[in-house]
Amino acid sequence: MSSRRKVAVIGAGWAGLAAAAALAPHTEVTLFEAGREAGGRARKVAADAGFSFLDNGQHLLIGAYRSVFRLLESAGVRRDNAFLHLPMQWYLHDGLRFSIKHGRFLGIRAKSLPAPLNLACALLGAENAPFAARLSLLNKLDALQKHARRTAPDQSIADWLAARRVPQAQIEQFWQPLVWGALNTPLAEGSLKTLTNVLADGVWADAAHSDYYLPKTDLGALFAEPLIERICAQGGRYRPSCRVGRIVCEAGGVRVNGEDYDAAVAAVAPYHLGALLPESAADAFQAALSALRYHAITTVYLRYPQALPLPAAMTGFARGTAQWLIDRSRLNGQPETAAVISLSEQHGSLSTDEWISRVHADILRVCPTAPAPVVARAITEKRATAARPIGVAPPDQSSLNAQRIFLAGDWLHPRYPATLEAAVQSGEAAAQALLARRQ
């Protein structure tokens, strides 16, 4: 009989997969997933006829996602094969444009400089913006970096920008797209400390950390499937389409779906947590769960008769419905475009046809002769991200851990917004906490 502990990991999103992968070499893991597809809020979707692949949202990884890439490499996924790798670039059709790879100022190439000087050089040499506006933006970024070094109470990004009288044009062309893309949060709700954490570990830390990585295939083939294969190869079990009821705490362990385990990792979305935890624990977490704010992301996929002549792999708009257009022909040669709309709830309840019509209108601004799409689809994740109120720390798990239950999820990360990197780090942290706790 095995002396290894039996652990249930509930939820096969990126946090649950990371936790199960970390636990599999040391315990007998059973990974439960209520849906048919693993991946949670970053999963593949059955591709419609005419599309090369579909996910429930277009995702962008950056070089600072070290835990994600380390986990992928452990499962045999080669970064260079799985992603289109691009140095940081910023191309707004109706605004600011700069590039780390091609930017230069006074003959100095941005890519030859270390971070964050590379970004400063690229900004000073930016296009489609007056020099005074570029210099003002650089000054604000410098002020933000200095602010991040000081110990100060957290505040909203909107309040910080207002205190420095940042012009509306600069907000529209830089700060708003940055915060929407990185935090998926309105400026008035976005934590300045969270934003500076992202910048400190990304563009300010290392030149390679700000590089973009666009998946060339669906997130199932790229992430979920290789990890599940690895988990199962190490003796773990995977149970898709298996919904878990309330966890029952017993002397020396927990009971999950009628089966005894030594411990459990709950890696479900926070809005499912109340029905999963023991009732006493669920009540204790209710205030923290109720305080979370959810925001939607809509992705509109379009396939055209031929690839569109988009000017960049990622073409953005300061004003429009689509915030970023991803040229998927550069990923796999297919004439497809993915449009990302963060905070898509601000547009109201649009029908699929309305989303498609609005995004195609934005595309016509860039490519006036573009024909109608051959096929199109809009996918909305209504609660794509969860954010805590400004200044609120993650809930204390000590009482829950004492009952051999550990939580994982991007919403629990103490430093980062709800991102793929936050999910993976949270899953690995839950696994480490579980393994460190003696029976």
From TrEMBL:
Positions of the Amine oxidase domain: 15-435
Gene3D superfamilies in the cross-refs: 3.90.660.10, FAD/NAD(P)-binding domain (3.50.50.60), protoporphyrinogen ix oxidase, domain 3 (1.10.3110.10), Protoporphyrinogen oxidase, mitochondrial, domain 2 (3.90.660.20)
An annotated Gene Ontology molecular function: oxidoreductase activity
Superkingdom as given in the UniProt entry: Bacteria
The keyword Ligase is assigned to this record: no
InterPro entries: Amino_oxidase, FAD/NAD-bd_sf, SQase_HpnE, Zeta_carotene_desat/Oxidored
Documented EC number(s): 1.17.8.1
Signal sequence region: 1-20
Pfam families assigned: Amino_oxidase
Keyword Oxidoreductase: yes
Alphabetic keyword roster: Oxidoreductase, Signal
Protein's name according to its UniProt entry: Hydroxysqualene dehydroxylase HpnE
Lineage, broadest ranks: Bacteria, Pseudomonadati, Pseudomonadota, Betaproteobacteria, Neisseriales
